[in-house]
Amino acid sequence: MSAIDESPAGNGASERPTVRGAAQEIGEEVRREGTRLKDEAAAGAKQQVDDRKHAAGDYLHTMASAIGSGADVFRRDGLDGTGSVLDRAAAEIDGVADRLADRRPEQILRDVEGFARRHPAVFFGSAFLLAFGAARLLKSSAPDGHASRGDTPPNHGGML
Fold it and tell me: Residue of 58, 92, 93, 158 with fewest CB within 10 Å of its CB?
């Protein structure tokens, strides 16, 4: 009976430090891998935000250019006042595009929040117009389906 008693007790006592060390090593490896994955995700998210920010800036510059061209048309037609208003709008949009390129996402968010607090009617009106424009754009770019032809989906006798 002494051989049975000694073997488990002897092995268990000598293996505890080794198991504990291995568990600590595994824990450290898991922490390092978690940190690496978190850093990769943050870098990927930052890259996506930067890409979208630059795309939005390019879009705004294009819009400002189109508005400026519209201002020239109004001036040619003798509507200088309307042309001036459109020129100012184009300049403001260009300024927004430039500020967008120069700022970090958290700065942009603070600017939008501040503008919304100072001018809530303008902010919500602009948001409505932007949403309406986006809906029209999506509807016009829909593939040959119900949305682009204006058809309604078929009636299934009230059963969906």
Answer: 158
What is the Cα–Cα distance from 137 to 124, expressed in whole angstroms? 20
What are the structure tokens assigned to 127, written together? 């948001």
pLDDT digits (tens, 9 = 90+) for 26-85: 888 888 888 888 778 877 777 777 777 788 778 888 888 888 888 888 888 888 888 888
Tokens representing residue 86 in the block: 């459109």
Angle formed by the axes of helices 120-140 and 105-118, nearest 10°:
120
- 73-93 confidence digits (pLDDT tens): 888 888 888 888 888 888 888
pTM listed for this prediction: 0.46
CB 152 within 8 A of CB 146: yes
Angle at 109 (CA atoms; ends 139, 85), nearest 5 degrees:
65
